[in-house]
Prior knowledge:
With 217 residues, this protein is α/β, with parallel strands linked by helices. It is 44% helix and 10% strand.
Amino acid sequence: MFGETEYDPSCQYTSIPTEEQLEALGRAINAGKIRYIGLSNEAPYDLMKFLQLSKDFQLRSKLLTVQNSYNLLCRNFDSGLAECCHHERISLLAYSPMAMGILSGKYNSSDDCGPPEARMNLFNGRYSEGESQYKLQSPKVKLAVKEYTQIAAKYGISPATLAIAFVLRHPLVALAVFGATKSWQLCEVLQAARIHLPEEIRVEINDVHARYPNPCP
């Protein structure tokens, strides 16, 4: 499915068979070119099928990670894939923990456009897949981001720090794949690694999530 939220059976005939992928990976491992294996944008079935078939190929390297989107606006990982990862001891490499910067609150300005140097403005049209997923004009996205921003303000932390800290507190997350173009942005991310989100913040976050579940699937 590669990150899609709805399964399209016709894609089966255009994708590379898992067996072919495993054969190529096995050759690369035996040649010493790679050490560990990870998947990206996978659904529970894909992950388990990969693990099942990998036994037939007797790979010397176990599948260790899956890299999927995970953030306050997209928690699809928890719906089924998290259970698979927990039992198979696979870690999540959470990409887009800031939802392409939306969770910083910078796009929630009076004109809904954000600063000119923001990624969605500076590179408008070059992130077609991401832009279709993270709809800035969506009422649910706006309302959810507004409430998460208010939670951050209530507890005296930046919205970015709250967003990253939420991702890092997940027991199956090994790391958050983030981007920063300014030193102060990096400081906010580093701060997220130092703080502990108390139970009352998690309760408020889950309350917002219950009212606006996964507005950026």
